[in-house]
Amino acid sequence: MISKCLSLEHQNVQALLERFKNFLQAHSITQQPDWTSHDAARIVADLKCALESNIPNHFAIEEQELFPIMVQEGYGDLIEVLLEDHKIIVELIEQIRPVVLKIFSSSVPLPQSNWEMFYRQGNALITELPAHAAKEDAGLMPALEECLDEVQAQEIYNHYQLLKLGKTCHT
Ligand SMILES: [Fe+2]
Ligand SMILES: [Fe+2]
Q: How confident is the model at residue 31, as a pLDDT?
């Protein structure tokens, strides 16, 4: 079922953001990590995957296939809120992603201004994304289970698998 698949992805991204939070908390806005460390390399590779493919793919299937159905089903107000969240989160991702790619390709220290932006926007993402996922888990997923029949849900799930093939993670 597509809603179960998306809920599972919420849990996965939440676990990653929990690790990211601990990683940021182990440093400070004035002191960036040693990017050559094993810990840093692991979190950067996982963030790259999430920001380049997992989160954009997840948002794409929601926006392209699920939200329009839910608007038709009378959930327009909820979808408006969720789309507004997506906009805020996409803006954060667009700021954070270039820094992640930069660290991924070379683990030299970042210019201080880059690190400060990464630290601030990273913390904002850690707050915004789980709050958004919680709204979907509470409001969108039960509504989907109610509105989609099995064939529709399976079709959307299949489309999602195809969509993911077009944008997989390379680390
Ligand atoms: Fe969403
Ligand atoms: Fe979602």
A: 95
pTM of the model: 0.95
Question: What residues contact residue 151 under an 8 Å CB cut-off, 6+ apart?
Answer: none
Name which of 51, 26, 25, 37 is nearest 107 in CA terms. Answer: 37
| Cα 116 to Cα 23: distance, rounded to the nearest angstrom | 14
| CA R_g for the chain | 17
Distance separating alpha carbons of residues 82 and 17, to the nearest angstrom? 19
In this prediction, the residues of the chain whose per-residue pLDDT falls under 50 are none
Residue 29: partners with Cβ closer than 8 Å, 6 or more residues away? 115, 116, 119, 120
Residue from 130, 144, 139 nearest 1 by CA: 144
**Nearest ligand to the C-alpha atom of residue 83:** 1
- Residue ranges covered by each domain of the chain: 2-166
How far away, in angstroms, is 1 Cα from ligand 1 center? 16
| Domain 2-166 listed as CATH 1.20.120.520 | yes
pLDDT computed for residue 143 by the predictor: 95
Residue 56 Cα to ligand 1 midpoint, Å, equals: 10
Cα distances from 86 to residues 10, 30, 42, 136, in angstroms, run 14, 30, 26, 11
> Two tokens at 45?
């590779």
